[in-house]
Structure formats: structure tokens, C-alpha cells
Design goal:
By secondary structure, this protein is mainly β. It folds into 2 domains: about 220 residues, Sandwich (Jelly Rolls); about 90 residues, Jelly Rolls, CATH 2.60.120.10. About 10% of the residues lie in helices and about 40% in strands. The strands form 6 sheets. Strands 16, 17, 18, 19, 20, 21, 22 and 23 form an 8-stranded antiparallel sheet that branches. A 6-stranded antiparallel sheet has the order 2-3-7-14-9-12, with no helix packed on it. A 3-stranded antiparallel sheet has the order 11-10-13, with no helix packed on it. A hairpin with a 2-residue loop joins strand 16 and strand 17. The longest helix is centred in the middle third of the chain and has 10 residues. It is globular, with a radius of gyration of 20 Å.
């Protein structure tokens, strides 16, 4: 029997990490550690998720996929990806800036190591005042200019800085040079890949006291050198009585939708893809044929594809981000 799956988060220390997963989401974190990432739903060798609820407790997501196949993933997902789980969900807590980096697309990815490309999107769960993201290049910047700035030690003024606030979202296709800046807690939906090429790391030392590795040759080769603003925005919201639907991102790898609910809403799917549910504010109750589940701010759930009918009833108001394979 399949049901909405919760997983134990996998925490990762990062030199730029902080404690917002504790102070904002109420998580119990390892003491004194700079936690930069929580992998919420993952079937990646660097951190495979383990079920935390129901009869399948302690099974890995990969074991579940092997056992249930299309019941869990969906017929369309299996036809495209086989038993490869195509997405990865994480929370990122940036107490300091992340490196200036870029990800390869599928064509440039290290496929002999089983890695896909890495297109991703960000939803800002919490932002300190005056927070910003780096996304793309300032108009007219060339690869040669950027390489020269790297050699001189500071490419910052060549990068496009975008002010952001709680509730904003941003699409980061493979090839877009980017960086998450301080003061941000972010929900990231991405292709199932852990490949990052660092261009610049602000001259700092890693947790081991050594400078972190840069990958300038690889990054320069995969970066999009015509990626200038304006950046594509989200679709206008669709009003549904007391509810609101917004498409945050849509690409060949994933569709990400946000629902702001003040009354119950039902979904009927085609069963061809699983759904990933992230509660980004408030709380509510998820109902399906097999039962009910309370969902609260910060929760992450995997809804198997075989659950084709479900509803969410808000307690006052709730906002849910739902992701799936198109």
C-alpha cells in the first residue's frame, strides 16, 4: 500500500550555512553546526532519503522505487526515466554568500558517473531585509571580460544582482551563473544532480581550513554567456474563488505550482507523475482515499502517482508548492 511519504531530512554542514532551519522551521539540528542544506526528498547517492512515516518507515526512497515502480513514480516518469527519480528537493540556509557557480545541462553533464544536468528553481521561504540573489550577467559582459575579472580577483560587478523578498521565486536554468547571497532560506526544486562548478568563492576558506576547489575551466565551458536580464518572471496568478494558483516554473524537467488556499481545494491527476508537496506557510489537512495527514510550514511530502485524487483543507490559510514531471 502506498500513501503520502515523509522522509528524514539529510543535513549537510556548509561553510556558508546557518541555523534558520532551527529558528524558522523549528527543526532540531546538530548543535553548533553551520547547516547549509537539508535534503528533503532525494534518491541521490550523496544522500538518499529514508521514509519516516507509516508501514514503509526506514525504507529508502530507492528501495521504494524498485519495489513499486510506476505506482510510485507514474507511467510517464517511468517511460522517460526508468527507475531513476528525476527530482531533488532541498532547503538551503545561506548565512553567508554561496560561491558564484554554474551547473551543466544534460548534454554537458558527467553522464558516465550517472549525473544528470542541473536546472533548478528557488522559492524564498524567508528573507532578511535587503537580501538579494545573483542570477545571470550584467548586459554586455563577455566570457573574456569575466575571465579577466576572475584573474583580478573580483567578478562581482559583472553579475546581475536581484533584490528578493519572502515569497519570491526564481528559475535557474543550467548554464546560468548564479549565487545565493546572505540572509536567505530557500526551497530548491531541481533535477536529481549534485554537480556544481565553482567560478569564484570570495577568497574564503572551507570548513577544513583550506580554500575550496574551483572549476573554472568546466564552468566557463558550460556557462551561458548571453544570459542577461530581464529574467523571465512567473505567470500571473489564477484566482479560484478564495484560492489562488501561480505557476512558478515550467520546463521539460519539472512544473512547480503554488497554491494559496483559504478554502478546500481538490486535485485529480492523470497518474503519470508523482507530486512533491512543500508547505511554505500555514497549515492544513491533506485528504486522500486512504486517510488524512496534517501538513505544516516546512513539511515535505512525496505523493505517489497512484494517488490520483486528493484535497487540502486549510486551517485558516495555507500555501503549498506542488512539483511534478510534465
Amino acid at each position: 500500500m502506498l500513501y503520502p511519504l515523509r522522509f528524514h531530512p539529510r543535513y549537510f554542514d556548509k561553510v556558508w550555512g546557518g541555523r534558520k532551519l532551527e529558528t524558522i522551521l523549528g527543526r532540531a539540528l546538530p548543535p553548533d553546526a553551520p547547516i547549509g542544506e537539508s535534503w528533503e526528498i532525494s534518491d541521490h547517492p550523496h544522500g538518499c532519503s529514508v521514509v519516516a512515516n507509516g508501514p514503509h518507515t526506514d525504507q529508502t526512497l530507492h528501495e521504494m522505487i524498485v519495489r513499486y515502480g510506476a505506482e510510485l513514480l507514474g507511467e510517464r516518469v517511468c517511460a522517460i526515466h526508468g527507475n531513476f527519480f528525476p527530482l531533488l528537493v532541498k532547503y538551503i540556509d545561506a548565512r553567508e554568500m554561496l560561491s558564484v557557480q554554474v551547473h551543466p545541462d544534460d548534454a554537458a553533464a558527467d553522464t558516465h558517473k550517472g549525473e544528470a544536468g542541473k536546472t533548478e528553481m528557488w522559492y524564498v521561504l524567508n528573507a532578511d531585509p535587503d537580501s538579494c540573489l545573483i542570477a545571470g550577467l550584467n548586459p554586455g559582459v563577455t566570457a573574456a571580460q569575466f575571465r579577466a575579472a576572475l584573474a583580478q580577483g573580483d567578478p562581482g560587478n559583472l553579475l546581475h544582482h536581484l533584490p528578493v523578498h519572502t515569497g519570491d521565486s526564481l528559475f535557474i536554468p543550467a548554464g546560468r551563473i548564479h549565487a545565493i547571497m546572505p540572509g536567505l532560506l530557500i526551497l530548491e526544486i531541481q533535477q536529481n544532480s549534485d554537480t556544481t562548478y565553482r567560478l569564484y568563492d570570495w577568497g574564503r576558506l572551507g570548513l577544513d581550513g583550506q580554500r575550496r576547489e574551483l572549476h573554472i575551466t568546466q564552468a566557463m565551458a558550460v556557462a551561458n554567456w548571453s544570459d542577461y536580464p530581464p529574467l523571465a518572471g512567473v505567470e500571473p496568478p489564477e484566482r479560484e474563488a478564495n484560492n489562488c494558483k501561480t505557476i512558478l516554473a515550467a520546463c521539460p524537467y519539472f512544473v512547480v505550482e503554488k497554491y494559496d488556499l483559504r478554502q478546500e481545494r481538490s486535485w485529480r491527476t492523470d497518474g503519470d507523475s508523482f507530486r512533491l508537496l512543500n508547505c511554505v506557510s500555514g497549515r492544513g489537512v491533506l485528504t486522500w482515499a486512504g486517510g488524512q495527514e496534517i501538513i505544516c510550514f516546512g513539511d515535505s511530502l512525496l505523493l505517489p502517482a497512484c494517488i490520483t485524487n486528493f484535497s487540502i483543507q486549510p486551517y485558516g490559510a495555507v500555501s503549498i508548492v506542488i512539483s511534478y514531471v510534465p
